[in-house]
Amino acid sequence: MADSYSSPNEYIGHHLAFNELKIGDSPFWTLNLDSVVVSIILGVLTMGFIWWFARKATSDVPTKTQAFVELIFTFIDNQVKATFHGDRHSFVAPAAMTVFLWVFMMNAMDFLPIDIMATILGWFGIHEWRNVPTADVNTTFALALGVWFLMIFFGIKVKGLGGWVHELFCAPFGSNPFVWPANFIFNLIEYVSKPLSHSLRLFGNMYAGEVIFLLIAMLAGFSGVVGTAGSVLLGAGWAIFHILIVTLQAYVFMMLTVVYLSMAHEGH
Amino acid sequence: MNIHFTLIAQALTFAILIWFTVKFVWPPLLNAIENRQKEIADGLAAAREGKASLELAEKKTTEVLDGAKEKSSEIVSQAEKRASEIIEEAKQNAKTDADRIIANAKSEIDQEVNKAKEELRSQVASLAIEGAQKILEKEIDAKAHSAMLTKLSKEL
């Protein structure tokens, strides 16, 4: 594919362009169709698959697929149990499952050959398409902000509005009025930094992964036979290493979600 | 790298997915797994119970067996005792029977002897009378001397 581009810059630039849909006049009213469509398809497929087997789940001898689903269930349940002390089954554990599976699947889109979607969709006249929704900062911010709102929601729900505001001013340094400003600034920074680090960690990893895949693919396109051989080797190596990153980032994202939510449940 | 409406769309998707999982995915899985855990726990408890009752039954069996053995040896010894008693009794009976038979025989023999003696006596007496008659046919009158002869035969 890379042969049809005149320069590496154009190749990379093209592959990092979103399929944008303008739905309003201001720059805000833009929709990254690729991110939204891919993430919705993956969400429906993944959770639909789990739901299909959860629906038919028996307490008897499970089928192999049910055993697989239960393996995921137990893994997530154990992780949540270790961090969150409360009724995890009513919200936190299923939310963690959604986050883990969905983020994992979105990350895993990195494994698709870098040009395959662009090529296939190119036949239908769609020229800009990015496969990995988590390499779109909008997606990761959406997830992190979702968790952020849940954090505030549970903070207020568990401690009451008064208790939550009290904690805003009286933790972590104490309830002396002299340290109220310090406490408040501290909490403010915490509330700002949590979603930022939460979302940018995932975004940075996936974006960097994608760019490196692009660079490796470019090596094949612009530097002949030796470059192609090298790109195959490097691409395989990076893809194998990426299996770890994809899983690890999904896991980290889930764990942070659980940690933030359990912090919101527990008072200082 | 711009933040725009995509964020809101993704957040909505996220919210719907979480809601779906909380509502439809997690509960049946939890239910199935917890039920299975309970079933396994119940099964293990039942197995333990079965083992215990088996042990109890074995204990009871040995007890019953021991009792039966004791009883049977008792019965055997009783039977032996009874048998020896019966034998003793039989011996006793036989002895008395024999004694009685012997006594009977003795008395019969005595009777026979007496009877024979009587016969002999009367025969000897009649022989003697006959002899005497033959010798003293003319001189002795049977009628006149019969008293003396009867006395004589009685003395024999």
How would you summarize this macromolecular structure in one to three sentences?
The complex is a heterodimer of chains A (268) and B (156). Chain A is mostly helical and 268 residues long.
Overall structural domain count of chain B: 1
- Secondary structural class of chain A: mainly alpha
Form type of chain B = rod-shaped
Give the overall pLDDT of chain A as a whole number: 87
The strand count of chain B comes to 0
Largest sheet of chain B: none
Low confidence ranges of chain A: none
- Largest sheet strand order of chain A: 1-2
> If you average the pLDDT of chain B, what whole number results?
88
Could you explain how this protein is built, in words?
The complex is a heterodimer of chains A (268) and B (156). Chain A is 73% helix and 2% strand. Chain A is mostly helical and 268 residues long. Chain A has one domain. Chain A is globular, with a radius of gyration of 22 Å. Chain A starts with 7 loop residues before the first helix and ends with a helix. The mean pLDDT of chain A is 87. Chain B is built from two helices and no strands. Chain B is rod-shaped, with a radius of gyration of 61 Å. The mean pLDDT of chain B is 88. The chains are: A mainly alpha (268), B mainly alpha (156). The A-B interface holds A 23-24, 27-32, 35-36, 39-40, 43, 47, 50-51, 54-55, 57-60, 62, 66, 69-70, 73-74, 89-91, 93-95, 97-99, 102, 133, 136-139, 141-143, 145-146 and B 1-11, 13-15, 17-18, 20-22, 24-33, 35-36, 38-39.
